[in-house]
Design brief:
By secondary structure, this protein is of the alpha+beta class. Helix content is 23%, strand content 28%. The structure holds uridine-diphosphate-2(N-acetylglucosaminyl) butyric acid.
């Protein structure tokens, strides 16, 4: 059943807590609902998908239709040997999916604990944290193709996954709606503890069980990242910039303590945007009601009553400062509307 809300207010639909409206908000349950909306001509005008709203910044009212997936189901869709296939509808809260895997002893999602947002958005920007990315466990993505109202299942190898990117952000943007994601998990323990101080935190809890890893990751995230309910934000506002290794080497001479991470592309390395912003002197600084978080410079926060334009003005000032100091251009990770 489709739920329709004309002129819907979006404040509770974006974790920045920005006031905005859209022409109409449709909440859909399944593919049949999307087929119905297709017949009604909803896709003939301007539209987009509004998922958990945890990676979005509204800089004004949205002059179109937004489609929102309703809460859905998680189910085991196959088992064989050590492998378990789990299917989750697009509207399932991401962390409910991770909790389901941990509760059932399925390995693979635990490092991605406590990330806000919905399952349907996880392939779009290939969410990642603590050495894991959604692509590591995605088997395939179920889609509703808007052109001909057909169903398609796209295998992971065709999803064009990269660092915080996928085909859903590029070629398929505006052409397909993710209705469910199929994940491949394992019953064999495979702890990934290489990132930062995760290993120490997990050892302090008694060793690398699924429950302990989930608990440690959740605690680290809570200590660094503000709760959207208390302080509006969308997690990392910027991507970690990927630059030529020669540029990184030159910067490293001047700033030997600067973190440099490997990237998947040859000749390129990843820098830490949080470090660059911090070093450029913007950590904890505010511009009107928008601020750079004082515990994690990657995160921009709404101090209360900020508009999307306030946040954007701050983002631009931060980008300019980082470029001025290091000659490195930061790109937003958040989708700006
Ligand atoms: N740093 C600073 N000052 C800061 C923040 C960071 O000096 O204010 C330094 C840290 O000390 C560290 C480095 O920068 O040496 C990297 O920082 P951190 O590990 O905190 O985070 P990150 O690698 O920049 C990424 C993801 C996060 C994810 C963490 C943990 C991106 C853009 N961000 O941040 O993802 O949780 O790793 O794996 O890739 C998100 O996408 O919303 C998000 C929170």
């Amino acid at each position: 059943m489709v739920e329709k809300k004309e002129g819907a207010r979006l404040k509770n639909h974006n974790t920045f807590g920005i006031e905005a409206t859209c022409r109409c908000l449709y909440t859909f349950q399944n593919r049949e609902d999307l087929e119905q909306l297709h017949r009604e001509g909803v896709f003939d005008g301007k539209w987009d998908v509004l998922s958990g709203g945890s990676n979005i910044l509204f800089t004004g009212d949205y002059d179109g239709v937004l489609l929102h997936p309703a809460p859905g189901n998680i189910e085991v869709s196959g088992k064989g040997g050590d492998t378990v296939l789990v299917r989750a509808d697009a509207g399932v809260e991401w962390d409910r999916f991770v909790e389901y895997c941990v509760d059932n002893g399925y390995w693979g999602a635990e490092n991605l604990s406590y990330i806000p947002g919905y399952v349907g958005a996880s392939p779009v920007q290939n969410i990642g944290a603590y050495g894991s990315e959604a692509k590591d466990i995605i088997e395939s993505v179920e889609l509703f193709c808007v052109g001909n109202a057909s169903r398609m299942v796209l295998a992971a190898e065709h999803c064009g996954f990269g660092y915080r990117s996928s085909i859903f952000k590029t070629t398929l943007r505006g052409k397909a709606i993710i209705t469910a994601v199929n994940f491949r998990l394992s019953t064999v323990p495979s702890p990934k503890l290489g990132y930062g101080d995760l290993r120490d935190s997990v050892e302090a809890l008694g060793g690398p069980t699924l429950v302990n890893i989930r608990q440690a990751v959740t605690a680290i995230r809570k200590s660094k990242l503000p709760e959207p309910a208390e302080l509006g934000n969308a997690g990392s506002f910027f991507k970690n910039p990927v630059v030529d290794e020669k540029i990184a080497a030159t910067l490293k001479k001047e700033y030997p303590e600067m973190p440099v991470y490997p990237s998947t592309e040859p000749g390129l390395v990843k820098l830490a945007a949080g470090w660059l912003i911090d070093k450029a002197g913007w950590k904890g600084r505010s511009l009107g009601p928008a601020a750079v978080h004082d515990r994690q410079a990657l995160v921009l926060v709404n101090l209360g009553g900020a508009t999307g334009r306030d946040i954007l003005a701050l983002a631009d000032a931060v980008k300019e400062a980082v470029f001025g100091r290091f000659g490195v251009r930061l790109e937003s990770e958040v989708n700006v509307y």
